[in-house]
Amino acid sequence: MHNRMIKRHDQPSILIHWFNAACWFFLLATGLGLISNPALQPIVQWWPKLMRDLFGGGAALLKVHIIVGVVWAGIWLIFIIAGIARYTLPFLKQIMTYKLPRDIQWMIKKNIQMTLGYKNMARMVKLLGWNGEIPDQGFYNAGQKAAAVGMIAGAVVLVVTGVIMAISKVYLSSAQTPLVQWSITIHYMAAAVTFGILLIHIYMAAISSEERPAFISMFTGEVPEEYARHHHKLWYEKVDI
Ligand code: HEM
């Protein structure tokens, strides 16, 4: 078989993905810098000090965190609306379409195969009455779909709670203090959960050698035919080559 290259991502999707990643790391770094209470700070205490020194104090750090958050959400909103037919809806359809028996089987088998190898996976799943074959997947595999849904839900919660906090001093009265306090807690929790998903996403995409062609495709837009056939067969079968 020829190992031709197959188009996987368009330029605008690649650009928005890396813009997203850059904003995310910046918001995470500055957000962690805003937590000055040692009892709440999940990483070392020198981080808030470093961030505050870098940006000229806590107030300036908060300002830059809000500005980047608004720019991030604003660019996203434009992309979502402008690309509704070409990018947004097809992407949402891909990540929301599940065939539960196949996808659950994929999740269980893939996790065992990645940690214990193919032979042990085949032996273990026999107990469940399954064979050792990993079920075929579409444009995204079950893990990517679940991660994408989690990341989007996390982003929506972060934006909503972020806006409530940002406008609280100007537009909200003291009667709305509980709303703001809940927003702080939920913002913090959403950031932690999304970051957890992101660690797996980055490990799978940038570190695991199996997915190296997908990582390269996030720059070039293309994957080798053999990779597409092996990892995303249901998509590969529909692509016009
Ligand atoms: C160093 C950081 C990152 C790396 C190396 C990376 C890598 C990748 C790669 C290679 C893909 C394409 C997978 C494929 O074609 O099958 C992808 C897709 C995606 N990335 Fe990232 N990414 C990073 C950061 C982020 C961040 C910060 C977010 C969001 C918070 C994010 C959200 C997504 C989503 C939603 C997709 C589409 C679905 C998926 O593949 O999970 N990525 N990423």
Keywords:
241 residues, 2% strand, globular, mainly alpha, binds protoporphyrin IX containing FE, 2 strands, 11 helices, two-stranded antiparallel sheet
**Structure annotation, total helices:** 11
What ligand molecules are bound, each kind once?
A: protoporphyrin IX containing FE
The rounded Rg comes to 21 Å
Query: Strand-residue fraction?
Result: under 5%
Residues in helix, %: over 70%
Q: Indicate the mean pLDDT.
A: 94
Order of helices and strands: EHHHHHHHHHEHH
Strand order of the largest sheet: 1-2
Ranges where pLDDT stays below 50 over 5 or more residues in a row are none
The protein's oligomeric status is single chain
What's the main sheet like?
2 strands, antiparallel
Shape: globular
N-to-C CA distance: 13 Å
- What is the count of β-strands? 2
Structural class determined from secondary elements: mainly alpha
